[in-house]
């Protein structure tokens, strides 16, 4: 175990240094030495950094594998099973997570490829998910993105500019049981397959009932504008709720979950087709919060039990990770407060 810890420290230190180089648009090493394999794989030569960011986290099994159970936060435990889950074990869990985000997918892939190459002999990829979303060159910066079902996704998300909400719901505070996690967050990842063909056969009125929003404007049903607060008590002339009792926005609303919020980051994915010819596509859902069982688990239990959207989606992958605070200086490295 002690040699393994040493190897992991060395890996995280090198990852941190090379992540900084790639985020600055630099190669991780020489690419023009003819007598040895290039230190950098080279597919970003001539490209900009494309606002690359790299996030690293630790899964529950990381602490078991390195015999660091005393340093595992109480909040970092595996997610419970949810009704309707169809999780693929090959896309679930993991000791470490690495999330690379960039405006150019080739830049993001380059980061993962090079970090995986650096890890050879110490760590290997358990599973990987490519995701895509809007960039400044493809949409207005203040426009809410749409998911692959065609609906605006993230209208009521926490704004990173809202310092109060970020402190209350996202960043781990002084009440943590592990000082190395102070200022960090917990990442929950869920691979959610959308049953595209089934969804595409539904009338627009049914699609809007399922979400509780108008498809074109994104306004909550009964409202006018996308950012109108949903009126969850409004009824129509027939006395029925305007926003259905099983509508997604009703069950995901903070008012339906004890005021709980999460910072969600949703990415579309398209992984070809399955053996029956159905499109394998959907949402790679990533959420950050300071207490995953009080926040994500509470919300997901409610959704899994009653959400009308559940008829059209399947959760096929899942993981949870503790993400330490960002690097404080050029000589800092991922997990230094934990392993240093």
Structure commentary:
The two termini are 15 Å apart. This protein has helices spanning 2-23, 60-65, 105-118, 163-170, 196-200, 204-211, 248-252, 296-306, 336-339, and strands spanning 53-58, 96-101, 185-194, 263-273, 279-289, 313-323. The chain is of the alpha+beta class and 340 residues long. Strand 4 and strand 5 (279-289) form a beta hairpin.
End-to-end CA span = 15 Å
Characterize the main sheet.
4 strands, antiparallel
Radius of gyration: 21 Å
**How would you sum up the global shape?**
globular
Q: Give the helix tally.
A: 9
Order of helices and strands: HEHEHHEHHHEEHEH
In short:
The protein is 24% helix and 16% strand. The protein has 340 residues and is an alpha+beta fold. A 4-stranded antiparallel sheet has the order 4-5-3-6. A two-stranded antiparallel ribbon has the order 1-2.
């Amino acid at each position: 175990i002690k040699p393994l810890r040493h190897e992991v420290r060395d890996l995280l230190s090198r990852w941190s240094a090379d992540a900084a180089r790639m985020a600055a648009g630099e190669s991780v090493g020489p690419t023009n030495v003819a007598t040895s394999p290039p230190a950098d794989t080279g597919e970003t030569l001539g490209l900009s950094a494309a606002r690359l960011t790299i996030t690293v986290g630790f899964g529950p099994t990381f602490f078991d594998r390195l015999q660091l159970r005393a340093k595992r936060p109480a909040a970092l435990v595996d997610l419970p099973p949810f009704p309707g889950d169809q999780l693929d074990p090959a896309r679930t869990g993991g000791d470490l997570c690495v999330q690379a985000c960039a405006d150019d997918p080739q830049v993001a892939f380059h980061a993962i490829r090079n970090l995986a190459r650096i890890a050879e002999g110490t760590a290997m990829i358990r599973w990987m998910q490519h995701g895509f979303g809007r960039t400044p060159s493809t949409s207005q910066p203040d426009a809410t993105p749409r998911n692959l079902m065609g609906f605006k996704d993230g209208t009521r998300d926490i704004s990173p500019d809202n310092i109060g909400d970020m402190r209350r719901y996202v960043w781990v505070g002084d009440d943590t049981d592990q000082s190395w996690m102070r200022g960090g967050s917990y990442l929950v990842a869920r691979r959610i397959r959308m049953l595209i063909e089934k969804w595409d056969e539904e009338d627009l009125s049914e699609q809007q009932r399922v979400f509780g929003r108008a498809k074109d404007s994104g306004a909550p049903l009964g409202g006018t504008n996308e950012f109108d607060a949903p009126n969850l008590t409004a009824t129509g002339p027939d006395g029925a709720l305007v926003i259905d009792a099983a509508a997604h926005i009703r069950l995901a609303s903070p008012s339906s979950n004890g005021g709980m919020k999460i910072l969600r980051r949703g990415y579309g994915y398209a992984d070809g087709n399955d053996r029956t010819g159905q499109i394998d596509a959907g949402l790679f859902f990533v959420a950050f919060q300071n207490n995953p069982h009080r926040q994500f688990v509470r919300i997901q239990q409610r959704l899994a039990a009653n959400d009308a959207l559940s008829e059209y989606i399947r959760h096929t992958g899942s993981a949870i990770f503790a993400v330490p605070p960002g690097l404080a200086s050029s000589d800092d490295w991922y997990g230094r407060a934990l392993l240093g």
